[in-house]
Amino acid sequence: MINDEVVEEVLQGNLEASRWAIPRLVKIFISSARDEFVEERRTLLESVGPELQSIYDSTGLEVELVDMHFGTSSDPLCDSFLYDDQLYEINQCHNVSRGCFFLCLVGKEKQNCPLPLSFTEDEFRDLTEAAKIQNLETEPLELCYKLTETCYILVKDSAEKNSKLFDQAFNILQSAAKDLSNTETPTRFSQFTRSAVEHQIHTAIDLSPNHVLGILREYSDDPEVSGNCSNHDLKSFIASSLPEENILKFNVPWKRGGIDSDWSEHETYLNNFQADVLQTLQTLINKNIEEKPEVNARNKTIQEVFKEALVHLALCQQYTSTKIPT
Predict the structure, then answer these.
(1) Mean pLDDT on 222-237
(2) Cβ-based neighbours of 265, under 8 Å, separated by 6 or more
(3) Which of the residue ranges 75-79, 251-255, 294-298 would you say has the lowest mean pLDDT?
(4) What is the separation, in whole angstroms, between the first and last Cα of the chain?
(5) What's the angle, vertex CA 279, arms to CA 109 and CA 298, rounded to 5?
(6) Burial class (CB in 10 A: 0-12, 13-18, 19+), 254
(7) Residue 237, domain CATH
(8) Are 177 and 194 contacting, i.e. CB atoms less than 8 angstroms apart?
(9) What is the pLDDT of residue 18?
(10) Closest CA to 48 of 201, 248, 188
(11) Residue 251 to residue 273: CA distance in whole angstroms
(12) Measuring CA to CA, how many Å separate 21 from each of 10, 51, 55, 297?
């Protein structure tokens, strides 16, 4: 049902709230490694976002792009507490966004997830025992995590003030988790077997693959790339998990130092990147609006009048449905 039909239905007295109280927000979480896709993220924030806003401004839709690296002095992917906030933000974007809620940029860089904030007692015991079987020292785990009434939680100071201890604990847990993943459910300790961006991508795809945009970039003739850092498995997973129209692939000429917006080859790439991402996001948003139209998503000049009409209709319905005592 198109938007005009919904408006007509409401004006005829059908005020079912679930049909028109839909969020008027496009909120997209951008996921990528910190030192990769710097120019692409700038293009998204400075060009794609504002252009999308201008396109949908008259409909009342608000566009917001969430770049987890913007304005940060250190890598938020290395901070357990910030990383947990990011996973929460991905869920929030999924709850409110129209059309697309998650955009991932995948190249060749990988980075481990930070330590989880908590473990159940059973999880911590299993990991500790697996570490001992491998003759690994478990003291760093006991220093990083403390037992509460219900679970083991990460001690904040251990991560902030002692990076060496933090790294030791992660390496021990990662080794134990990989050993356990061979004998039980592989996803139980997935934060140790996936990269930080990969874990966010899995989180988003588990929520709604149809509203995720995957952008895959390859460098042609890259002398620095190897099988271990090409993210081939992750790119294959994205290609098999998302609809074909939700995937953009770019093959870019390699240049030492990464993307250079002043180089003509890369300038052309960034222009194509901007145009393709904008078009794909428009398609996703328009499709979502068609599937779930919202009567408020109309020209701002008539929204207030329309809302007033809704109030009068609701009062009329309430009045006419009230029985008058005889």
Answers:
(1) 76
(2) 252, 253, 255
(3) 294-298
(4) 43
(5) 125
(6) middle
(7) 3.40.50.360
(8) no
(9) 43
(10) 248
(11) 11
(12) 12, 25, 22, 10
**Read out DSSP for 246-283?**
GEEEEEEE--TTS--TTSHHHHHHHHHHHHHHHHHHHH
What's the mean per-residue pLDDT of the chain?
85
Query: Has residue 22 got a pLDDT over 60?
Result: no
Residue 217: its pLDDT value, please? 95
* Residues 109, 33: Cα–Cα separation, whole Å: 7
Question: Which has the closest alpha carbon to 254: 108, 117, 64?
Answer: 108
Angle at 96 between CA 94 and CA 101, to 5 degrees: 40
Sign of the CA dihedral 157, 159, 162, 168? positive
Amino acid 2: pLDDT: 45
Same domain, 232 and 286: yes
Interatomic CA distance for residues 222 and 30, integer angstroms: 25
Cα torsion at 178, 180, 181, 187 (round to 10°)? -100
* Angle made by CA atoms 77, 80, 83, in degrees to the nearest 5: 50
> Where does residue 106 fall: left (phi above 0), alpha (psi -120 to 50 degrees), or beta otherwise?
beta
| pLDDT value at 277 more than 60 | yes
Contact between 110 and 226 under an 8 Å Cβ cutoff? The reply is: no
Look at residue 216 and tell me whether its pLDDT is greater than 70.
Answer: yes
Among candidate residues 192, 175, 182, the one with its CA nearest the CA of residue 133: 175
The answer to whether residue 255 scores a pLDDT higher than 60 is yes
| Separation between Cα atoms, residue 227 and residue 136, nearest integer Å | 29
15: containing domain: 4-19+299-322
From 169, 192, 215, give the residue that closes a domain: 192
